[in-house]
Amino acid sequence: MIRIFDGAQIDSQPALRDEMFRHRATQFVNRLGWPLAVDIAGREIDQYDAIGPLYLVSTGADGRHRGSLRLLPTMGRTMTAEHFAPLAPAGFADPGTLECTRFCIAPDAPATVSAELFLGVLDLGLSRGLKGAYGVFDARMMRVYQRLGTPTTLVSTLGEGKGALCLGYFDFDPALRAGLAARAAEDRVPMRRAA
Known about the structure:
Layout: E1 2-6, H1 14-31, E2 54-59, E3 65-73, H2 79-83, E4 97-105, H3 113-127, E5 132-138, H4 141-148, E6 153-158, E7 165-171, H5 177-185
Parallel strand pairs: 4-5
Antiparallel strand pairs: 1-2, 2-3, 3-4, 5-7, 6-7
Helix pairs in contact: 3-5
């Protein structure tokens, strides 16, 4: 199930919030080796969590975190503009677009969670009359996006090979909804993630 938290609303669910931040530390710091700060409680929280982002959170029947992502309007402060400016195209800041960051899948989450999160972003964007979302990712993720049926347009890259940084654009196209909904509903064996 997708739950949407607007800014500080996430604080009304402290156990879920903290589990999300701990899973971010597991994925981005422990598994991917990103040089990010982790607090004494094992949570990865950055400056963009303090400015009222929108969180989409996938929870299981038990209410626990299975996956999440963070959304910010491109007209305000964004990670792309402040840390990856060479990737940002002309017109990046647009009232009809969002920036998606910290796309995180919990260890042992079902494989359907990625599609569920993309479906949640699509539905949110369509319900608010938005055009699409940008996201920075490494080149290896393009295969994942293709497998999910989310035609992410490659906007720009920095570097070469599998480790290249990419900026992609996900168009909020209603025609994508049926395919994502089918993938989100598929019953698969849970994915195992190394800690």
